[in-house]
Amino acid sequence: MPTLEWIGKEKVVNHHLDVPYRVLEHRYTYMGNRATGVEIPDGNKIIRGDNLEALKALLPQYEGRIKCIYIDPPYNTGNEGWVYNDNVNDPKIRKWLGEVVGKEGEDLSRHDKWLCMMYPRLKLLQRLLADDGAIFISIDDNEQANLKLICDEIFGGKNFIAELIWQKRTSPDARKKISTAHDYILLYAKNCLCFEESAQLLDIDEKSASKFKNPDNDPRGSWVSSDFTAQGWRPNQMYEITTPSGKKLFPPKGRCWKNLETVFQHMLTEGRLWFGSNGSGVPRQKTYLSERAGKNIWTLWMNTEVGHSQEGTQELAKIFREKSLFDYPKPVRLIERILQIATSPDSIILDSFAGSGTTAHAVLNLNKKDGGNRKFILIEMMDYAESITAERVRRGMDGYQDTEGAGGTFSFYDLGEPLLLENKYINEVVSVEKIQEYVWFMETQQPMPQHDGNEPFLLGCYNHTAYYFYYEKDCLTTLDRTFLQSIKTKADAYLIYADINTLSDRELERHRLIFKKIPRDITKL
Fold this sequence. Notes:
11-stranded mixed sheet, about 525 residues
């Protein structure tokens, strides 16, 4: 498979592993016109902070659980002011740190910077996707080719589903001889077979339904027809057909019948073939409206169906009563189309370049329409994460102008302290609960279970193993016979973290114990 090379690639391929794990600091939860200090762990989230670190922070709770990811990263047009600030410890990349990228259109290295920025983020996004999940990435011609190649590398070329074409404009730009009418949306799955099985067809709209007719009063109702011939020559599909009018037919030159004669006879008996109004035409196969689960998905998305750039700007202006508040926000209908295809009513949706919050708005709208309980996670690093992103979500929940609110709640977070200092020492500023959650995930790859409180150092049981994190901030802990006597949980094996172990190897083996030292043996994400 072809791969793309660029300046700095060798330093960012595994950079996601070096990103510090930071805990999420809960600031408030918004519920029905008021903010509270009560966190809803599995609820909607808005996270303020660098999206690379925020994605890392989501892993313990969400790895393998996100059904749909939509991102609208910087397009790298040369006129944008996106900031490259990843802490990659390499001379070639350190010189870029904190620089605004792409202000000068002739800056050839801006493509290298963009790829260095995107690669580790896509690596973490791939880990967060569920097996039947999919990622949709908006992009234009500036980086489309580069993005396709690195996505093939990260997600696997076989998991490429489609390159969607979105008609973003309503008319050509009069200032240009060749005016761009569209953007791309690259669609990749975590596992293409799982995604194709779970992907949803679109609702059949009034326009599509109007194409179904019933000229022969078929008791099954309205139908549309399709060709009953196929390209090529197959001996067992070259039989003679007698039409209802008595006319004898063979397949047209260069074609054969679509099915074997036994299948044809069965369809004929059931009245599933149409020979034209006079009964003499080449047969066509009927497809009934009543049997259609939905409308197939076309890769060309016209703005009449999913909105255009101007519509997104108008929506934002209506919510905030201000014009030009945000550059090129996506229309809600565009994200709704994505959610209709790739989610079910209980899915989790992630947008790590949240911008004005269109993705959350689309989730709220779709839940309101179908009664679903989809959850969103938004990440935004810019200052407007609170004033625009979160505020738009509040107004979408409460209502604005003549638009009825969709209801709902969300919790707002900042990125907090790193869990490990110098990537090896436990940061004692971090709460014990956050440390426990991290350790549990690193051992089991599962979200932290509810704690019953009977054994304060017990994290939980998984696959017949009991996990203990014997940690106290103010003193060293020792795995000894006294601690063994305090264990109440019955399990086939025990994995115990502590600062010191005084048990012999024979005792560890006899009691089916695995000792891990704090913090040296804590695995890093």
